[in-house]
Amino acid sequence: MSIKILIIEDDSDLAANLYDYLEAKGHTPDTAGDGVTGLHLAITHDYDVIVLDIMMPGMNGLTVCRKLRTEAGISTPILMLTARDTLDDKLAGFGSGADDYLVKPFSLKELLARVTALSRRQLKNVGKQLIEVADLSFNPNTLEVNREGQRITLTPTALKIFELLIRSSPNVVTRKEIEEFIWNDSPPDSDALRTHMHSLRAAIDRPFSKPLILTLHGIGFRLADHNEV
After folding, report:
1. C-alpha to C-alpha distance for 149 and 199, rounded to whole angstroms
2. Which CATH number fits domain 4-128: 3.20.20.70, 1.10.630.10, 3.40.50.2300, 3.30.70.260?
């Protein structure tokens, strides 16, 4: 799995070494040479992990981390880098919102191991978050579906289609994408998807006043609150 990593480090040689090493390992690094640029990139782009040096001129790493957490609401895992190995320094890093702490000099292999662990933890946490569209909710952890407080039971195939639609909401999911997801592009027959969509609509839309599943004829389907998109 390729990890998108933002490296905020004012030491250009170290930043270049990290960039080359991570890229060679199949990941997608990005770099910023100061705190202000790093803060901007972290807010305007989606990263899986941020590697953040504490000691930088101007805006230091502690301030960047604090602003990301308290002002921007960014929850991307942050690995702090520092040359200081005191308890107070570590507590300051964790207090500003860092998730892990690595003391210079360090092994590139150890840094990658920590970045990978943070990325996996982030994916696990994302998977547990409740997904909601209008009055419809889905818990990926328990596979529980509710609408207007009522528990909805779906067939296994309908549940797979539903999860794909709600995770993609409000975007359109094509028929081909659904068929590949469920049957690897080899559906049992030409009416298989139609049958499962009928079953899904009967459970998700029919008992309620406002439909959420929209058909784009000849293209695919979209699950969304159509009064808002």
Report:
1. 20
2. 3.40.50.2300
- Classified as helix, coil or strand, 87 is helix
Per-residue pLDDT of the chain (229 residues), as tens digits, is 689 999 999 999 999 999 999 999 999 999 999 999 999 999 999 899 999 999 998 899 999 999 998 888 888 899 999 887 777 777 788 888 888 889 999 999 999 999 998 887 765 555 456 788 999 998 877 888 999 989 999 988 898 899 889 888 888 888 888 888 888 766 677 678 889 999 999 999 999 989 999 999 989 999 998 765 4
Residue type, 79: L
For the chain, how many residues are written? 229
Provide the token pair at 98: 């860092």
DSSP annotation of 22 reads H
Give residues with Cβ within 8 angstroms of 55, minimum separation 6.
61, 82, 83, 84
**CB of 4 closer than 8 Å to CB of 123:** no
Phi, psi (rounded to 5 degrees) for 30: -140, 150
State both tokens at 201.
């609509």
The token pair that represents 13 in the structure block: 């040689």
> What is the CATH topology of the domain spanning 131-223?
Arc Repressor Mutant, subunit A (1.10.10)
| CA proximity to 225, closest of 132, 127, 126, 131 | 132
Residue 194 per-residue DSSP state: H
